[in-house]
Each structure stands twice: as C-alpha cells, then as structure tokens.
TrEMBL record:
Keyword rRNA processing on entry: no
InterPro entries registered for this protein in UniProt: DNA/RNA_pol_sf, RT_dom
One protein family per Pfam: RVT_1
Residue ranges of domain Reverse transcriptase in the record: 53-319
Name by which UniProt lists this protein: Reverse transcriptase
Keyword annotations of the record: Nucleotidyltransferase, RNA-directed DNA polymerase, Transferase
Length: 320
C-alpha cells in the first residue's frame, strides 16, 4: 500500500537547518552547516521544492550518495600500516537534513505497526542504556534470590553495521513498510560510493555494496529494521542495544538452564546464516550467575563452544 507522506514546508526545512551544529565537518561538496544557515529565504524555498520532489519521485539524488572517508592517525602507530588510522565517513550535510525530516515522517508508521521489538533499546527515544542494564540485572538478581541458576550468553556481532546485507534489508523493508517508502529507501541505499581523502589527496570512487552508512541519520533505523526479527523464546530473556546482544535463562537445574539457552542460540544461529550476519564465537561469552561453585554445561554456536567466563562487560557495566 502507499503511504500519504505529508509535504515538507519551508519553515520546517528552515528549522532543521537552524538546528544544525556549526562545528560538524562537511562532506565532499564542502557545504557546511554555517553556509546553509546563511541562506536567504528564496534559497530555502528552492531546497524545500527539491526535498518534496525527492518524496514525490521516490528518488534519492546521486550527488548525495557519495561518502568522503577521512583518515585520522592513531597516536604512536606506524604511519605505513592501514590499522594505524581511524576512518571517519563524512556525508553531505544537506542530505542529512533531508534524512532527519523523512525520519519524522516514517516514525509514526513504525510505531503503528510495532515493528521494532521491545527488547531493542538502541537508537530509540525513551530507551536508555541504563534502563536496559536494569532489566538484565533484575533478571540476574531475581534468579539469585530464588536460588536459581541464570545462564547468559553475550554475543559479539562482527562488524554489525558495515556488513548489513542490502538485498535482505530491502526484502524486510518491502515486507513491512508502504511501497513508496520502500522505493525511496531502495533509492537511498543503491548506487552509493565512497572515496578516501588523506591530507590533500583523493582516491577514485568505489561502490558501497553492504552496510548502513556511518554517521547517517537513517542508518541506525535501517539496522533496527534488519535485525527486528531476531528469534526469541518465551522461556528466555533477550536484551539488545543496537548490536550488543545477550540472552538469559533462569532455572533451578543448571543443565536445564544451559539446555534452554542452547535452544535459543540454535534458532539464532539459523537466523544469522539466513541473513548473512557473522558472530565471533571466540569473543562471545557464556556466564552463569549463581551462588554455587560448580561447573556448568557449555553452549555452542556454529559448532564452536562459547568460552565460559566469570565476568562479562555489557553496556559499560561489569557483571560477575
């Protein structure tokens, strides 16, 4: 079905531009936030016409689909090594202004169909890290007070944002959102390129074939849509904050706790394979929270035993 997207107004565009932070670095087009804030009313009306044409045609301009990657040297590292630099992707600021405005239009649709799961706390209003931590700690504390075993797996997703599979993401968008929103997001994702800038030198353009865009406005939302159908089970507690994922099971029998945890991990394993998401098994952790001292049955992912540990770090909090 089609979604009636309300046309943008000049005052709305002007407000979004005035809210820009002046110190933000520009993209390859060198148009800064300060430049946009100095534009006369006539130019703002023209930008509004362009924005509404994008909505009407469901076509994202090619000039806004080029990311300039700058390299920041890491202190004390060898300059000849690639790993000695931290890449930062810079997008055209006018593109980010449009993304903010279209996000406001899409959010009510997402809320109406309730597509983002309750266990996902990343990039959502009124969902802070501290609230997610409270949920996990409450689950562990209740298990300890009930003299149960709380078996938990902390999964390490490899390059989560950079490896998002575009055809799979577009399939999920088409399945869930109105057709015109799908067409616009399809245009937004397709035929994207990046170039590298180091000092005054520029590389050639190279295609972006996977991932959601670093430092973009719509990127976090697209990642949440891609991972919204992560398998969950009634007897387990799932906690996700963007790509930080943990699964917990409480039971009076440690073998039963590990068995139920393994069932959920097996379902997640199948899901990871379908949607081409990789998890680093050796960096993932299996922690059993208990007041008893004994060994606990291991759990596996991709036929590899997840390392057992006595402590795990989750959202900046050490749990032991």
């Amino acid at each position: 079905m089609e979604m009636l997207i309300q046309k943008l107004k000049t005052k709305e565009v002007q407000k979004a531009i005035q809210n820009l932070k002046g110190y933000k670095a520009p993209g390859y087009d060198l148009i800064t936030g300060k430049v946009l804030k100095e534009l006369p009313q006539k130019a703002l009306r023209f930008i509004t016409i362009v924005f509404n044409a994008i909505l009407r045609l469901e076509y994202f301009p090619a000039q806004w689909k080029v990311a300039q990657v700058i390299l920041i040297p890491k202190p004390g590292k060898e300059p000849e090594e690639v790993k000695s630099y931290r890449p930062i992707s810079l997008l055209p600021i006018l593109s980010k202004v449009f993304e903010k405005l279209i996000l406001k239009r899409i959010k009510p649709v997402l809320e109406s169909i309730n597509i983002i799961p309750e266990h996902q706390f990343g990039f959502r209003e009124h969902h802070a890290t501290i609230e997610q931590v409270h949920i996990i700690i409450r689950k562990i504390r209740n298990a300890l007070e009930g003299k149960m075993y709380c078996s938990a797996a902390f999964l390490d997703v490899s390059q989560a944002f950079d490896k998002v599979w575009h055809p799979g993401l577009l399939y999920k968008i088409k399945k869930s959102l109105p057709h015109n929103v799908y067409q616009l997001l399809k245009s937004y994702l397709s035929d994207r390129y990046f170039l590298i800038k180091y000092q005054e030198e520029l590389s050639d353009l190279y295609p972006i074939n996977s991932g959601v865009l670093q430092r973009s406005v719509l990127g976090p939302l697209l990642y949440l849509l891609f991972t919204a159908d992560l398998p969950t089970m009634e007897q387990t507690t799932t906690g996700t904050f963007a790509d930080d994922t943990t699964i917990l099971v409480s039971h009076k029998d440690p073998k039963e706790a590990s068995r139920k945890l393994q069932e959920n991990i097996t379902e997640i394993q199948k899901w990871l394979k379908i949607w081409r998401i990789k998890v680093n098994e050796q960096k993932s952790l299996h922690v059993t929270f208990t007041l008893n001292k004994e060994t606990f049955p291991p759990v596996t992912l991709n036929n590899r035993v997840i390392p057992q540990a006595k402590t795990a770090k989750y959202l900046g909090i050490h749990l032991d």
